Amino acid sequence: MENPSLFSSVMHFGLYFGMSLVFLVLFKYVYKFITPHDEWKLIKEEKNTAAAIGFGGAIVGFAIALGGAASNSISLIDFATWGIVAFIAQSLAFALFRFGFMRTIITRIEANEVSAGIMLAATTIAVGLLNAACMTY
Predict the structure, then answer these.
(1) How large a percentage of the chain has pLDDT more than 90?
(2) What is the torsional sign of CA 12, 79, 84, 82?
């Protein structure tokens, strides 16, 4: 005998997980446009560790925020709305870091200064944690 609630739960998981993956892919591409340097080129062609750390932190921070959105949403539309809020908050985190805390972040990342990549990653992960924690009713 089939358990309808189990089927329903698996369907909900699939929808939320699928939408999460779409958000992550979109974030990867949009993040590339909001940063003045090309992370993929720095990472793939130049083997730039600082860029990999900074970009990896941005992705992890956004994934943490998406996890908070998924955990606290009451519907798929609610999740999508909070996903967009997380997207904006994580993008603003980079802008705040770049223009407020470390104005030389771009040149430092391009110069493969690992300390700059670590600080960028730490900041975006911290923002992701705060972002996720604030997504409550």
Answers:
(1) 66
(2) negative
